[in-house]
């Protein structure tokens, strides 16, 4: 079994809870209440900020140019297509500027920020990769539903298509192969560290979905 499959299997409870989450069912059905989507997106925008910083550390610590290019291209997408989606969704949902920039952070958002800072501060490529892989592979896992119709509202539909398009799918395939490659050459401590970051990320993903309904 590959390293990434092993990590996913070891975190199956949190992983499966996210893939089958109420948020996922409601966003596909187009029934996600606007106040829930608003809470989700205002918190997630703070996630994205630190996520881009972590991508920067992956670019800095990667062991080859080819990997840096992949991350740089992905960072370009997040800071263009995904960033403009957030702005258009905030406009539609009536989120004022102050709340876009400085919302009161919830515990899962603050937890993610600490996790991403810890991964970046480790300056360990495998640990950065583990967190990035959970964030993107888990999102592909819930968003990639063959044959499912898209909801009408762009705020719902585009959040799905940002996470199930061909470019995203190929980035996730590459991320997993990169984690497998790095895991195969890492020593026991390196694999243990990456596994611990993977676990923290999977747990937080689940509480992030849960908390927007609390
Ligand atoms: C919490 C969270 N996790 C993952 C993703 C996917 N980039 C996201 N936008 N937000």
From TrEMBL:
This protein's pathway: Cofactor biosynthesis; thiamine diphosphate biosynthesis
Keyword list, A-Z: Hydrolase, Thiamine biosynthesis
Positions contributing to substrate binding: 44, 82, 136
Recorded catalytic activity of this chain's protein: thiamine + H2O = 5-(2-hydroxyethyl)-4-methylthiazole + 4-amino-5-hydroxymethyl-2-methylpyrimidine + H(+); 4-amino-5-aminomethyl-2-methylpyrimidine + H2O = 4-amino-5-hydroxymethyl-2-methylpyrimidine + NH4(+)
Thiaminase-2/PQQC domain: residues covered: 15-213
GO molecular-function terms, A-Z: thiaminase activity
E.C. designation(s): 3.5.99.2
Residue numbers annotated as active site: 205
InterPro entries: Haem_Oase-like_multi-hlx (IPR016084), TenA_E (IPR026285), Thiaminase-2/PQQC (IPR004305), Thiamine_Salvage_TenA (IPR050967)
Principal EC category: hydrolase
Any Gene Ontology biological process: thiamine biosynthetic process
CDD domains with a match to the protein in the record: TenA_E_Spr0628-like (cd19358)
Keyword Hydrolase: yes
A GO cellular-component term linked to this record: cytosol
Family: Belongs to the TenA family.
The protein's role, per its UniProt record: Catalyzes an amino-pyrimidine hydrolysis reaction at the C5' of the pyrimidine moiety of thiamine compounds, a reaction that is part of a thiamine salvage pathway. Thus, catalyzes the conversion of 4-amino-5-aminomethyl-2-methylpyrimidine to 4-amino-5-hydroxymethyl-2-methylpyrimidine (HMP).
Protein name: Aminopyrimidine aminohydrolase
UniProt organism field: Ancylobacter dichloromethanicus
Lineage: Bacteria, Pseudomonadati, Pseudomonadota, Alphaproteobacteria, Hyphomicrobiales
